[in-house]
Amino acid sequence: MRLTIPHYVRAHAITVAILCGLGPQTVQAAGPDEVHRQMDHIETAGGDSGFGFSNGSVIVAPVPFSNPTIGSGLALGAGYLFKIDPGSKTSVIGLGAMRSDNGSQAAGLMTNLAFDNNRWLLNLFAGKADVRYDLYTSLGPIPIHQDGQLARFNLAYGVTEDLSFGGVIRYLNTSIAVDGTSFPSLPPQYSPDLNLEIITAGFSADWDRRDNSDYPTDGSRLTAEATRSFFVDTGRASYDKANIKYDTYRPLAADSTLAFRGVFCAATDETPFFDQCSIGATDNMRGFNSTQFLDLRSTSFQAEYRRRFGPRWGAVAFGGIGWTGAKLSEFGDGGSHSAIGLGARYRVSKKFPIDFSVDISHSNLGDDQIYIYVGQRF
């Protein structure tokens, strides 16, 4: 049975999970997420060595990253990999840490277990972080720092080879303050979001028909998640959030592929700003700081042309456009947000299609951004 780890499990592996909920685009540091992905593949390559906890192995992987929200830095992941039974994917017990040049840092512990021939996938995570980023407000960008603790539990069940359903529970305790003396405080509309304790529960679905989870060249993937979050020790009403992502891939030749992504996100009125829909965070779109365009609704479309130049080198050309608004009818009020760019790829594994990626984007606002990470954006 082929069952890849669902998006909502992979998205919180190692230190990326710490940053979920601590600022929109911090979750897209990208590099730390790939630490777990590389661990998974390295062990899979040696999967004939047996199963059971005692037949596992240890691996350590440093991963550099760069993005416009938290800057450049290094993530370090270490894990113990093993197979619970012969027919299941590799399970991981790992820990990770990251630090960026703007002072953001995080550390955490995670466990990903696959058993019963991949029918069940279980993920546990606990970590803490102190993240620094600019929040775009009516007064302009305000530097803030956000710290907190996060715990997350996921359980997914594979109904078929391609289709799985799961549930998620998340606990987040976070505080936010202005970083520096340039601004005395945040605008009043952000005051309710400065110190929060939140419990989230929800459901996910993943229909994955791609030919490869790391470098797909054919097929499609549809993921959806819907959650309800509750504030602890306050009279504030709960909030709901849902998003749908659709990726599709079309081969043009043996060495080139067209990739497309469409995303829609919706949240209700009580959603804290750091959990709202975002161009750049919700959709992984390049070109913008993820706190530039936050709102209760967002949608975007992206396309990427991928070309290989031999076994090691490759290149991409990409473009995307997105909209945000408090309601669907208000999508056009703030105008569209678009970006184009070019990227280079270097394959870091001879056995698996895992690339070290460097992208440069140019937005319709005239801003240029550099992204460094491992893997593909979608």
From TrEMBL:
Q: Name one GO cellular component term.
A: outer membrane
Q: Which InterPro entries match?
A: Bac_surfAg_D15
Compartments reported by the entry:
Membrane
Its keywords, alphabetically, are: Membrane, Signal
Report the superkingdom from the record: Bacteria
The Bacterial surface antigen (D15) domain is annotated at 195-292
Q: What is its main location?
A: membrane
Signal peptide positions are 1-29
The protein depicted here goes by the name: Bacterial surface antigen (D15) domain-containing protein
Q: Supply the source organism for this entry.
A: Parasedimentitalea marina
